[in-house]
Prior knowledge:
By secondary structure, the protein is α/β, with parallel strands linked by helices.
Amino acid sequence: MTPPQQMPLPAALEVLHDARTDQIVITTMGSAREWMQLGSDPLDFVYAPSAMGEAPAVGLGLALAQPDRQVIVCNGDGCMLMNLGSLVTVTAQAPRNYVLIVFENGHYEVTGMQQTAASADARHRGDAIDFCATARGCGFTSVYEFDDLNAWRDSIATVLGDTGPTFVLLKVAPVPGGAVPRSPAPPAERAAALREALTTNA
């Protein structure tokens, strides 16, 4: 069987980093670790340490509170499995400025590289769960999937320019030895800094 095509996680995030303008960007788990390597922005919120699975809900709250600013949530597939119900909540509220990017590598990378229950190798019939079909079933109509870095780079302007809520699945390779991301500062301090940045850059 031909292995599925995957893109490097750091490179996939670099595409987003280069395209990002004045959006709020929320990162968690592996994406947070790699995003911090690209530098920092006042409108970043590195959700680490995190309540696993809650980043989409944090992003939804910010999108509703800041309707004139796009909010991008970078979530892992393992985190997404922890809170699939948030997909229904997002589409019920239907914020046009909301983008949820799920980085699928089939593993709980930062907790020991265990396979997720959605990955083909962990399932009895070898049929991986289709996150895009799940998102559509939960009400998303703007849905994208990429496993090729160049295609992701060529399409990101279209993706970010679409009317949300938008769901994006990026098939990425696990990062060997990927560590738990370290909090860049106390969470309360970072939340206050984001609030100040939103007030200053309103």
